[in-house]
Structure formats: structure tokens, C-alpha cells
Design goal:
alpha/beta, eight-stranded mixed sheet, four-stranded antiparallel sheet, 10 helices, elongated
Length: about 425
Amino acid sequence: MTGPTDLPSLPDARLAGLRAEAETLQSATVELRRDLHRYPERGLQLPRTQEKILQALDGLPLEITRGKSTTSVTAVLRGGQPGPAVLLRADMDALPLQEDTGVEYASTVEGSMHACGHDAHTAMLVSAAKLLTRHADELAGSVVFMFQPGEEGFHGARHMIHEGVLDAAGERVERVFGLHIIANMPAGQIQTRPGPLMASADTFSVQVIGKGGHGSAPHHTIDPIPAAAEMVGALQTLITRRVSVFEPAVLSVTRIAAGTTTNIVPETAELEGTIRTLSESTRAFVRAELPKVCEAVGTAHGCRVYADIEPGYPVTVNDPLEAGRALALAREVLGEDQAVVMRDPIMGAEDFSYVLQRVPGAFAFVGGCPPDTEPDEAAANHSNRVTYDESAFSAGVAMHAAFALDALRPPHRTLAG
């Protein structure tokens, strides 16, 4: 007798119970996260955060190194059998923002707040390290835990790459994985997609130099303000008429500054803004054309123009196989309805992109919408009012552990093949 061929696959015993194991660490995860939240640090130098991570990892069978140019932490867990190495990453830094959440563990540091969830990322990865040490004998290979400062515009991942984090296990890691909590997603849900996931992010500044004079006699001046205003429209036309509609690009002029009072034509005007794209080729095109557009408009008005572009993070691109693998793990560990393929990328940027440029891997989002709140009504990441559902942390811990266990189980057969 032949049975049906479309029966669902049986649960994978290797991954059974990971969420429950993560729940046993929940109180420690929350405690560390709240401690980091109370005392946020920004940039590349986070000495207190580093010390808290080292204290939390103390006593575990890990090979730990500290960063030289930053306060990063790299920890290596050796498995019970030889094999390849994989990397799990969390970022650690906060934002320059005054918190207004009213939670009892709110920031005590004036003008600084963990408004993007990096405190949660750090705590989840610490707990994942604890969980994986329980399973070290089952690992055929090594796990590198990457605790990274300076994600919020300071290129912290690049610093750690230059200092050897990808080779911390003695050989180049073969797969990488990272998670980011999102307040506008259902708590505990995992979302990702193959290919471009997040945009590149460059900033530009344009100085327009004319000739100042009295506001009553503009014909005796070279007014930089009309030139600057025309540049705003011309730059939007660059995107809508020079970039393919099938190659998403966003150019936003976010700051215009000129003048000091009502009766003076100023000598200079300034524009600043951001460029976001989902491919490196489109990124290169817009970066090359922006100065040309501004200089041409300036010339038409008799102004001199100096345009500068400061490179930001590259496009965050998931390896298709690794993204599929992450979603398969989410279904296995968290439940079928907890794994969602994102239809579209988002235009925010992420410096885990530097890691994904060098090693196949996946970056995914874990939902953290607060209880009794609809995702589209929750205060968003980077808001001074953002909060997260802490119950989602165990999903992140379990996903980190599942990624490593699945990649490093002998005979190295994974859900992706």
C-alpha cells in the first residue's frame, strides 16, 4: 500500500525544546537587558557594556578576546568534534536620544537611549552562548560570538573585521547570522527574505556659494538660495528620470540652511541629506551623478558648488540559501506561523552588511511589539517612546542556538540541504 506523499515532515529532534531551554534563561536575559538599558553607551567605546558582557560570560568555556580599537568582545565556543566555524552577532550601542517611555528601567544617562533594541540583542546573544555551552559536545565545529559596538553610524563591524573576528576560531567562519528586534512586528515572529534586505546609506552635503548683498537689490548679488532650491527638485528628477523604476532608490534632502535675517541675501546656502539604494550599482550611479547635477544647477545661477558624499553602510544582502534556512529553522523551533518571508526590503541600513559581503549568511528580524498594542500602532525603533515585549527574547535566543546547532551537527546536514 502506498500512502500520501504530501504528509508534513516530522519535527527535527535536534531542535526540539530549544525555545523551552531559552525560557529557562529568560530571567537572566531580561535582567541583563534592563541593566544595559539603564546605562546606555554610544559609539565605539562602551566600557561598561563590555564589562557587563564579560561578567555575564564569566565561567563559560569560551575563548574571549577584547577589541583593540573598540570595546568589542569576541568569544569562541569549541565543539566536541572538529568542523567548520559559524558566527552569531549582536550590536551593543545606543542612540543620542532622550528617553520618554516611563518604564522603571529607563535610561539614567541624559541624552542617550537604547531606542533600537541593541541592549536586547546583546542580552539575547549572551543567553544563546550560555545555551550553546550546554550543547557543546553536540557541535562539530566552533561558534564565534560577535559583540559589536558602533553600529549606529560608526562602522563597528568593519573595525571588528579588520581585527580578525571572522577568523577568531582559527579559520574563516563559513556561515553568519544576526537578529534585529523590531517594535512594529508581532512579538516572537521571525521575518527575513533572500537577497537585498536593507538599503545602503550614504550622506551628502552641498555648499552653494554666491555673492551676498542687500535684500532690496538682488540684482547686485548672486543669490544662492534659488540655486539651492532648484537643486532639491533636480535631485528628485535624478531619481525619477535617471534611475530605473525597478532599481529602488531614495534621495531625501533633510536639511537646508541659509541666511541670517530678512533683508540680507546670504553668500552661502547648504543642503544635506541621505541616499538609500538596494544595489551597489545604483548606489554608485547616484553617488557619481549627484555632484554633477548640483554643479550644473549652480553654474546656471552663477554660483560655485562644492558637493561631498560620505559613504555609509553597504546594501545588506542575504544569501538565498541561508535566508531560507533561517526561515526553516524558525518554523521548526518557533512554529509554522512564526516564520514570514518579507515581500519587500526596508530602506534602513545595517553594518552587518560588511560581514555579509564576506561570508554567506542571513540577517533576520524578530518581532517585539509591546503587549496590548497593534504592530502598526507601536512606537517604532529610534523613537524616544519605543518599548519591546520582553517575552520575544526567548525566540531570539532559540534562533541563535538553532542556527549554530543546525550548521554544526555531524554529519553537517542542515535544513537547507
